[in-house]
Design brief:
With about 350 residues, the protein is α/β, with parallel strands linked by helices. The protein has nine helices and 13 strands. It has three domains: about 60 residues, OB fold (Dihydrolipoamide Acetyltransferase, E2P); about 160 residues, Rossmann fold, CATH 3.40.50.300; about 70 residues, Ribonucleotide Reductase Protein R1, domain 1, CATH 1.10.40.50. Helix 2 crosses helix 6.
Length: about 350
């Protein structure tokens, strides 16, 4: 019976194991396609089988931190991953840079904390990007406004009011890792057996918060800059950390790009107020930009809806639609190429 790292058979039924020495474990670290997996035998460094490597259609089909996997230990320290168990939830974004497809950040997360601070990182538009991809992965979001010690009470209240003006029902905690303000409220959300993820831009204080939660200095933080009075975030890889109460945290490197993919569900959840009002628009395909009888535009003009939030919704909707179009074209090109190869092979056979 498996009973560690938040495993339960209801969410992750034990599959038929490929051999008597195979076991189930959880990925706790990821380093460029090398994985550290915790299983009942201990921590094993593992790679994936050639079958996974050469048959996977995308990087999404490779293991990620938080995944439950089937592996075979080769000795006390090395092993091979054969299978990834179906994911309950997944936190992913559009692949950064010129790469195509999606990048899995972490899997099987129960609550994702979006950490932001009141300095130049404070952006409600970026917050809504995070909320969109969190909802898309079927994860419950919460917001942490960190580094409140750098601001006056009036300034902190203003930040809180700005967030609440666009997301009045959001779970919001304001904290300071330096003074420990709000840390107890974060701890109240961490339940035994559940897995949590800290995400946010570089330098917002995720590692400092995790140090407070773990009661130590597990996550290294650079010394404060004299010019900015901020600790530099130094997490360079994803890691699953077990807390004393039996809950689990995933820390992630700061993200410079938070690109959304085809995120219809995520957009509907993040902008639920806009979606609800849009049901009363005159035209079913209303773009909420200039159409007569647009209930969304009318609600913005009356102050019922936030105009800045609508602008961001339209921006993210265009980005999501563009991504879906690109993916459709890419799949069509792949099918066309496969068809051509099949026709060439068939032609060569008939010529022999």
């Amino acid at each position: 019976m498996i009973n560690f790292l938040g495993y339960n058979e209801r969410d992750f039924p034990i599959p038929e194991l490929p051999s008597s020495d195979a076991c189930v474990g959880r990925v706790i670290e990821e380093h460029r396609e090398r994985y550290f997996v915790m299983c009942e035998q201990g921590i094993i460094e593992a790679g994936v089988t050639g079958k996974i490597m050469f048959t996977s259609g995308s990087k999404n089909e490779f293991p990620a931190v938080g995944d439950w996997v089937v592996l075979t230990p080769m000795d006390d320290e090395q092993g091979i991953i054969h299978q990834i168990l179906p994911r309950k939830t997944v936190f992913h974004r559009r692949a950064s840079g010129r790469k195509t497809g999606e990048q899995v950040i972490a899997a099987n997360i129960d609550i994702a904390f979006v950490v932001m601070s009141g300095d130049e990182d404070f952006s409600l538009n970026r917050l809504e990007r995070y909320l969109t991809i969190i909802y898309e992965g079927n994860i419950t979001p919460a917001i942490i406004l960190n580094k409140t010690d750098l601001f006056t009470k009036e300034e902190v209240d203003e930040f809180i009011n700005e967030i609440k003006s666009r997301h009045p029902d959001a779970k919001l905690i304001w904290t300071s890792a330096l003074t420990e303000t709000g840390i107890k409220y974060v701890i109240e959300h961490l339940l035994p057996g559940k897995t949590y993820c800290f995400v946010g831009s570089s330098g917002v204080g995720k590692s400092s918060l995790i140090n407070r939660l773990t009661g130590g200095e597990r996550q290294r933080v650079d010394t404060l800059s004299d010019s900015t009075a901020k600790g530099k975030h130094t997490t360079t890889y994803r890691e699953l950390i077990e807390l004393k109460n039996g809950s689990f945290l995933v820390d992630t490197p700061g993200m410079r790009e938070v690109g959304i993919s085809g995120s219809e569900i995520g957009l509907e959840e993040t902008f639920a107020d806009i979606i609800t009002v849009a049901e009363n628009c005159r035209f079913r395909d209303c773009t909420h930009t200039k159409e007569p009888g647009c209930a969304v535009i009318a609600a913005c003009e009356s102050g019922t809806l936030n105009k800045a939030k609508l602008d961001n919704y339209l921006r993210l909707k265009r980005e999501s639609d563009f991504y879906q179009m690109q993916e459709y074209e890419r799949r069509q090109k792949g099918r066309s190429f496969a068809k051509m190869v099949k026709e060439v092979k068939s032609y060569n056979k008939t010529k022999r």
